[in-house]
User: Which sequence fits this backbone?
């Protein structure tokens, strides 16, 4: 029997405008709120009780998951009046744990999709007698990450900031956002103030000779924090490149949820998801994309690697590649949106108003294109 803390209080700024009304961990990924995948995996690993550390849009979590009975879990919701950072959030949530000081507590970032063997991380932690065990993953280009080198025994030797020069790239191992803490270690994190687990808690543990174990696991790993990663993670789940007990349909090239309508002459591929109540018209091609509930994609539109927000519309013949369309936004017919464009919630792009070369990187409101 294991308890877990889920860190779900971040603002998800890199995913705006998708996160303007929905916290990142509640965004639908492969047809269900992302946390459903994490909760199902945690339950399968023998976790029985989860404390949610919430802050941003905190009130939206409990209506989704209730008491957790559907997952076979006991869920507790804790809200920070002011965001306390990752370490502060763990400390704050710990007041609601019931386990003893020597028990292992699983801590998960609420935005990591991975194939990690959670039970093995916990059991290895227990057997090793470590204070903290961290899941580490290896990345091809470590320049964008803090680095976590380990010695021959797997003990973490340092927590290094993002490398600025090639010489500073001493390892390709990075913090993968899943930890097991011995409960007493959490209780020693300062209470009631902002603490970063990466910048303060872990370095302090090394400075006091605590045993911080790095467990390199090279199974699937993805931080869903950016639009590109978000669509990739969803598509990878749909195609079975990473498994989840919470996938609401068979693995395949596309997932169409109950209540969606896809014209027989539309083409869905690359792990596309079409949410409940969404409509995809004749001749539309939707590849590797997330079409959120209630969205409408008109005939002959081409949508690649993009997210179309709740009740948003994409007009006939429009082309979107790597674009985010916010909730309720309207992209009129015949637009050609450049990669990376984010259309704000409720914004309206008039028919044929945006061509690839002329577009700004963000259409925040209706001043790009007139309301139709
Ligand atoms: P960005 O704003 O796009 O960087 O995303 P984020 O807000 O999720 O931040 P980040 O990816 O660094 O956060 C890692 C994990 O910690 C996520 O699961 C966040 O929800 C969570 N988190 C970050 N800060 C806090 C906080 O102050 N309180 C709580 N409870 N969780 C936090």
Assistant:
């Amino acid at each position: 029997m294991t308890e877990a803390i889920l860190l779900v209080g971040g603002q998800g700024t890199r995913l705006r405008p998708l996160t303007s009304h929905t916290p990142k961990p509640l965004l639908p990924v492969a047809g269900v709120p992302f946390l459903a995948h994490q909760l199902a995996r945690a339950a399968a690993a023998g976790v029985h009780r989860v404390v949610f550390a919430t802050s941003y849009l905190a009130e939206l979590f409990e209506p989704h998951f209730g008491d957790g009975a559907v997952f076979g879990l006991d869920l507790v919701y804790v809200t920070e009046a002011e965001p306390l950072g990752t370490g502060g959030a763990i400390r704050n949530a710990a007041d609601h744990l019931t386990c003893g000081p020597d028990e292992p507590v699983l801590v998960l970032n609420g935005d990591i999709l991975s194939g990690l063997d959670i039970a093995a991380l916990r059991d290895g932690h227990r057997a090793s007698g470590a204070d903290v065990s961290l899941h580490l993953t290896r990345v091809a280009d470590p320049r964008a990450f803090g680095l976590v080198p380990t010695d021959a025994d797997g003990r973490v030797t340092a927590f290094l900031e993002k490398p600025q020069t090639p010489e500073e790239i001493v390892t390709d191992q990075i913090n993968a956002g899943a930890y097991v803490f011995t409960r007493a270690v959490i209780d020693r994190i300062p209470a009631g103030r902002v603490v970063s687990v990466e910048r303060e808690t872990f370095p302090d543990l090394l400075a006091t000779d605590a045993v911080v174990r790095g467990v390199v696991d090279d199974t699937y790993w993805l931080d869903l924090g950016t639009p590109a990663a978000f669509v990739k993670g969803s598509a990878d789940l749909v195609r079975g490149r990473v498994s989840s007990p919470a996938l609401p349909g068979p693995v395949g090239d596309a997932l169409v949820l109950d209540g969606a309508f896809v014209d027989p002459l539309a083409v869905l591929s690359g792990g596309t998801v079409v949410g409940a109540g969404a409509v995809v018209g004749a001749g539309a091609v939707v590849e590797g994309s997330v079409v959120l509930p209630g969205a409408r994609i008109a005939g002959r539109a081409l949508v690649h690697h993009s997210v179309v927000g709740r009740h948003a519309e994409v007009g006939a013949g429009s082309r979107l590649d790597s674009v985010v369309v916010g909730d309720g936004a309207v992209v009129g017919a015949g637009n050609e949106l450049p990669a990376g464009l984010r259309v704000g919630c409720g914004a309206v792009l008039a028919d044929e108003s945006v061509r690839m070369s002329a577009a700004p990187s963000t259409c925040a409101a209706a001043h790009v294109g007139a309301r139709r």
